[in-house]
Amino acid sequence: MQTNFSLAQLADPHVAESEKILRKCVHCGFCTATCPTYVTLGNELDSPRGRIYLIKDMLENGRPADKEIVTHIDRCLSCLACMTTCPSGVNYMHLVDHARAHIEKTYRRPLLDRLTRAVLAFVLPYPGRFRAALKLAGLGRPFIGLFEKLPALRPVAAMLKLAPSSIPPASPTASPGTHAGQGVKRGRVAILTGCAQSVLDPAINEATVSLLTRLGIEVVVPEGEGCCGALVHHMGREDQALASARQNVDAWTRAIDQGGLDAVIITASGCGTTIKDYGFMLRLDPAYADKAARVSALAKDITEYLAALDLPEPVRKPGTIVAYHSACSMQHGQKITRQPKELLARAGFVVREPREGHLCCGSAGTYNILQSEISARLRDRKVKNIEATGASVVATGNIGCITQIASAAKLPVVHTVKLLDWAYGGPRPEGIPEERLAAAE
Ligand code: SF4
Ligand code: SF4
Fold it and tell me: Which pLDDT band, with edges at 50, 70 and 90, does 435 fall under?
């Protein structure tokens, strides 16, 4: 596509990057067919191509964001299905990230929207604050119906609906330290403890550490690591996202210096997509560019890492029918499509793939809070397709999808690594009734 940026505009490296991306788009519109918001709303401006035009117009004219562009960019899930579909290699992720940062800098949102976003950015990335907020959620639950009737308070209602009624205690696995591998040492990795996942389901990382150490891998939880920054990055809060990225790059660089790392293991694919992008996010920071690129190169989803290991025979041969839901950040963000299914099949599960597997479940970071109506439509469509597989259990690799799908599905939804850990000798995943796996025990 032809662009018309001035030389002065192109002196800004963010604009120059976006211009390169815009030029690649040939407006063929292939991406519209797989875009969940276009499929749901049927409006060109809620398609990738429509958003690309809006962003181009805003950036070329050096305009502040207006209500129209904010509406349509806010509705984008950042699911990146458009990037999988695009035949021209348009990097929509970097383009929309730039647009979101521009919106954050130039647009004043209504007061309640600002407040909601500020609270989310203050609470979600910090496990202690998030834990306290979930405990307080019980007080607000009786008012969900009331909040739902007031459009400005719908995000509060959505938050309260998603908050679990009980939360597990904090896991010692999340504390800094080293978990030695059993037997002959086969490798050394760091693990991201993360933020929301460590509160909502600490058993995911417990299963990961248990499985890896049984396979002879030493697992380090480095001092000083924290939220990957994805949640605030998708809200356009660039400074906060970059601060998180720098903090993690420092923590993992220390771990590399203290004994080397074969990988940085990530068990939430939403975080994986962002950490693999640290090299790009920090490319303009001379103090961090190289270190960040090194960290990005080491970042591996747990299934990506396991698939490259020479695994022993599983202890159990389950035969359980599992519907595998591929998170958008897994399939579109990281292009990891084969490994989780192959690992599950190798471990003895019968893997079924739901129809419309490319479509987002509507979780998408804070999307299910900030865009709860579209999110609920996508969730219900996803759950219907999952339940049609006839599976006993749903497996997926992202805590956001687990929470979202579990809020409507009749089946238990677990992280893939918990099923793998069980098949390779670990405990039965909590939350899966015994009868669903019993036949295999
Ligand atoms: S598929 Fe790619 S090239 Fe075609 S309109 Fe979409 S982003 Fe542009
Ligand atoms: S990221 Fe997802 S929701 Fe956004 S434009 Fe692309 S396909 Fe549509």
Answer: confident
- Indicate which ligand has the atom closest to the C-alpha of 91: 1
Q: How far apart are CA 374 and CA 65, in angstroms?
A: 22
Over residues 269-296, the pLDDT tens digits come to 999 999 999 999 999 999 999 999 999 9
Residue located nearest, by CA, to atom 1 of ligand 1: 86
Q: Which ligand is nearest to the CA of 88?
A: 1
Which ligand has its closest atom nearest to the C-alpha of 35? 2
**Mutation test of ligand 2: which of 53, 80, 93, 363 has the most ligand atoms closer than 8 Å to its C-beta?**
80
Closest C-alpha to 359, from 56, 80, 144? 80
> Does 90 sit in the ligand 1 pocket, CB within 6 Å?
yes
Question: Angle 289-298/238-257 helices, nearest 10 degrees?
Answer: 70
How far apart (Å, rounded) are the C-alpha atoms in residues 323 and 433?
16
Protein residue closest via CA to atom 7 of ligand 2:
35
CA distance 410 to 431: 12
CA–CA distances in Å: residue 389 to residues 155, 187, 265, 323, 383 = 32, 38, 30, 7, 10
CB neighbourhood size of 2 (10 A): 6
Which atom belonging to ligand 1 lies closest to the Cα atom of 92?
A: 7
Measure the CA angle with vertex 159, ends 158 and 165; round to 5°.
110
- pLDDT tens for each residue of 69-89: 999 999 999 999 999 999 999
